[in-house]
Design brief:
It contains 14 helices and no strands. By secondary structure, the protein is mostly helical.
Length: 311
């Protein structure tokens, strides 16, 4: 009886036990292969992205004599490390430097002002296209993007003439206006797509609570669209920080107002400037963008589900 009861209990346990999924033949090998390929791809991507910047940084802390003796040496000797190149780049011209500290300040003023002005225009503009019904709403977005079909040099000469007659050439204000006009269309297009993902029922609830359309935009929609606004602001900042053509046209004869891209172009075009100093200037140009990206990374990725509607 004990043996029969044990057999029955074992059969019932087998019947009620959870069924194990049968693995397809070779599935383990496929996962292992895909995992290996993933890390190989990530490693190759990191090498392609980080190696040029690392080599540039290594050259910037080497004396020119060491570079001429061993041009193929990647890592400098510990006793050869020097930051004189950065002092040369950042020091004012009156002290024998290149004046990049002033250029950094000018670029920061232009880039931050362009971001603020572009967002002030693009946020209500993109919201109007996303929410307010009017004739040709879809065509307006396409028209904004169509402006990027024309190269910048096509509008450079007319803008040069117009701003010269207005007395804005040779000023940072004129450069801010140009960058704002350049970036507002793409900023509107980027944020319009995000505003359309915000549930309309949330805005309708705000309207029913007595908020105006501006109040809904300010108190509800902008808070939900923070990731898109941050990403758009960073995009505008990068354009204004790195732009060279309009800065050259508007500020070429005003060295105290040069941006950092103009200063770097001057270093690269001079045969008297050592390569190590040029690399230090390149690091100074690139480093603020990298720092800004890492500082805003959490804001860019955070709140992506803030517009989700509760059931």
């Amino acid at each position: 009886m004990t043996t029969t009861a044990s057999i029955v209990a074992a059969e019932e346990a087998i019947i009620h036990s959870p069924k194990r999924r049968r693995r397809a033949p070779g599935s383990g090998r496929q996962r292992a292969l895909l995992g290996t390929l993933r890390w190989v791809t990530i490693s190759l991507y990191l090498i392609a992205v980080l190696l040029p910047f690392a080599y540039m940084a290594m050259l910037s802390v080497r004396p020119i004599e060491s570079l001429l003796r061993n041009p193929d040496q990647f890592l400098p000797a510990w006793n050869e490390l020097t930051f004189d190149t950065y002092r040369t780049v950042l020091a004012p011209v009156s002290d024998g430097g290149q004046g990049f500290l002033t250029f950094l300040g000018n670029s920061a003023i232009v880039a931050i002002s362009s971001v603020i002005l572009a967002l002030l225009i693009a946020i209500p503009g993109s919201y109007a296209i996303a929410r307010l019904p009017f004739f040709g709403r879809r065509q307006v977005s396409a028209l904004f993007l169509a402006t990027y079909l024309f190269p910048a040099i096509v509008i450079a000469i007319p803008l040069f003439v117009i701003f010269t007659r207005m007395g804005l050439r040779g000023s940072l204000l004129g450069l801010v206006l140009v960058y704002t006009a350049q970036t507002v269309p793409v900023a509107i297009y980027m944020m319009r797509n995000y505003f359309e993902t915000v549930p309309e029922s949330i805005e309708e609830a705000g309207l029913m609570d007595g908020l105006s359309r501006i109040g809904v935009l300010r108190r509800i929609t902008i808070r939900l669209a923070t990731p898109s606004i941050m990403a758009t602001g960073l995009f505008v900042f990068m354009i204004a920080w790195n732009e060279f053509l309009f800065a050259l046209l508007f500020l070429v004869d005003r060295r105290p107002l040069w941006t950092v891209s103009l200063g770097l172009a001057q270093l690269s075009g001079s045969i008297e400037v050592p390569t190590t100093v040029l690399m230090a200037g390149s690091v100074v140009l690139t480093l603020p963008i990298i720092i800004l990206f890492f500082l805003t990374e959490r804001l860019l990725t955070g709140g992506l589900t803030a517009g989700a509607e509760k059931g």
